Amino acid sequence: MTVDPIEPAEAMRVARAALPIRTDRLVLRTLRPDDLDAVRAYRNAPGQRRWTYNRDQTEAELMAWTAGDAPVFLRDGDAMQLGIELDGRLVGDLMVRITSLASRQAELGWTVAAEAQGKGVATEAAQAALELAFALGAHRVSAQLDEQNVASRRVAERIGMAVEGRFVEDEVNPATGELGTSLYLAARRTG
Questions:
Q1: pLDDT digit string (tens) for 46-76?
Q2: Among the four 9, 94, 106, 136, which has the fewest Cβ within 10 Å?
Q3: Collapsing DSSP states into helix, strand and coil, what is residue 9?
Q4: According to DSSP H, which parts of the chain are helical?
Q5: In whole angstroms, what is the distance from residue 149 CA to residue 163 CA?
Q6: Any idea what DSSP says for residue 34?
Q7: Please, which residues bridge with residue 112 across strands?
Q8: How far apart are CA 36 and CA 52, in angstroms?
């Protein structure tokens, strides 16, 4: 089967037209400079880095994260970071990354503040992001997470992703210094 690549200009048009995305309870939108304090609070919260495999983010990294840029998909690896609002308050963010334009592949990732966890926020946001990734032209959308991150695995499975791979002790977690085992989950567009 011949596959046409994701066309960058079309993907950017689709993303810009879709934003902000409104679900039953949430608004997904580009992050803005005035989100800096909220993003710092939940991204650098104690224990949060355990699941994101990063050290605490510096002030400059957080400023870049919240610059408020429009989505740009020019090459493999380009991503957009969307804020997750619940009741008008930023409670997390999620990433939609084009991992391969030619193979029509995308990746999702999400982070939700501790006080908003366990309320279906991540699942609702991830479902909307999955639909957006398919609208951008992705055929397959994946998520990579630590095997011990049971909550994120449940989110991925609730939105239709299935485990496709398990990589034992494949990466050192900078937050803990320990080797972690990664799960790779994915969903494919049907129809």
A1: 766 555 556 677 788 888 878 887 788 999 9
A2: 9
A3: helix
A4: 8-18, 36-43, 49-52, 59-65, 121-135, 150-158
A5: 13
A6: G
A7: 92
A8: 18
Q: Greatest CA separation found in the chain? A: 48
Other C-beta atoms closer than 10 Å to the C-beta of 103 total 13
The b-or-e profile of 153-164 (16+ CB within 10 A means b, else e) is: bebbeebebeee
Query: Which tens digits make up the pLDDT trace of 86-101?
Result: 999 999 999 999 999 9
Task: Kindly state the tokens that stand for 40.
Answer: 């710092």
Task: Quote the CA–CA distance of 157 and 71 in Å, as a whole number.
Answer: 26
Tokens of 181: 């085992």
Taking 90 as the threshold, does the pLDDT of residue 130 lie above it? yes
Bridge partners, 80 (sequence order): 96
* C-alpha to C-alpha distance for 115 and 27, rounded to whole angstroms: 17
182 three-class SS: strand
Q: Which residues contact 27 (CB under 8 A, 6 or more apart)?
A: 20, 21, 84, 85
CB 137 within 8 A of CB 8: no
In the block, tokens 């011990």 appear at: 148
